Structures are given as C-alpha cells and as structure tokens.
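Private note to self, pasted from the team thread so I don't lose it. Backbone tokens:
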C-alpha cells in the first residue's frame, strides 16, 4: 500500500499521535508548497506528537518511502525509520523536537539514505538539547550526506552501524 501526501498539505497531530506506514509513504512537497507535520495544540511544545514511522518487515526496493520538502515541527522523534530502504531528503526541515530529529534502526539488508536535511532547535528553551540523528542496527553502512544540524546537543549518534559521512555541517 502507498500513502501519498499532496504538496501544500498541513497535518496537525494530536497529543501522542503518530503516523505508521507498513508500505510506502510519499511525502514530497515543493519549494513553494512544502508538506508540514506539526502539533495540533494551540500552544505547541516539543514532543506534542510522536512522529512518522516508516516500517518494513523485509526491505523491498519496490517499497521505498520518499520524504522531501517536508517540515516537521514539535515532534518527539519526528522521522523514524524501522528497517527499509527509505529516502529521507532533500530539503526537509526538522525543528523543535524533544528527543531525536531522525531516528533509524536499519537491519543488515536495509539501505536507507539520509541527505540534505536541515535539523535545528529554534525554540530558546530547546537549544542544545536532543540528537540530530540516532542511527542503529546491523546495517553495514548508512550514507549520511549534506545534512545541517544546528543547536542540537549531539549531532549524530551511531550504534552498531558504520556511517558514510560526507559534507555534513554542525553548528
């Protein structure tokens, strides 16, 4: 199954809510019409909603999710990859989260790609908290390229996996 979100769509997530896909998710906005995931609260705070969860039991090249030109605001772990060969980037903006901007658990056969994302803690109370990325699993290597992480406590944490880091920026 495939869920396609149209450019310009804003999705307001309730307290503790998450979007879990067991197939493909196409969240492909544009420069002019990005897709926005945000809190439904009138006074949003980091961690108001959980995040989007991309799941695959067995990585399948025909089931790759694509997330680009999408903005994520006020989530706990806004982008979560649970196995699978998903494409996260380009031009995603992930801001003001309470735990980790992009979290990946990739098994040996998964081939996720994480590139050209902007991860930032903008809210004054959140600056220098959280992880930009947390990458774990048995995948031999995960390419992480051209990402920018600003005012996060830890840029990238890697457990049980090697990374191919290329042209990432940490401020």
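Design output:
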């Amino acid at each position: 199954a495939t869920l396609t979100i149209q450019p310009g769509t804003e999705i307001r997530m309730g307290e503790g809510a998450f979007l879990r896909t067991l197939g493909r998710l196409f969240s492909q906005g544009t420069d002019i019409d990005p897709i926005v995931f945000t809190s439904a609260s009138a006074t949003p705070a980091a961690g108001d909603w959980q995040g989007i969860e991309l799941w695959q039991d067995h990585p399948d090249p025909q089931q790759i999710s694509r997330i680009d030109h999408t903005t994520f605001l006020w989530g706990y772990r806004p982008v979560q990859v649970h196995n699978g060969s998903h494409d996260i980037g380009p031009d995603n903006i992930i801001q003001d989260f309470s735990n980790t901007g992009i979290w990946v658990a990739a098994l040996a056969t998964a081939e996720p790609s994480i590139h050209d994302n902007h991860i930032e803690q903008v809210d004054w109370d959140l600056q220098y908290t959280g992880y930009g990325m947390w990458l774990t699993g048995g995948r031999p290597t995960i390419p992480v390229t051209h990402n920018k992480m600003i005012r996060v406590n830890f840029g990238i944490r890697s457990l049980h996996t090697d990374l191919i880091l290329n042209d990432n920026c940490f401020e």
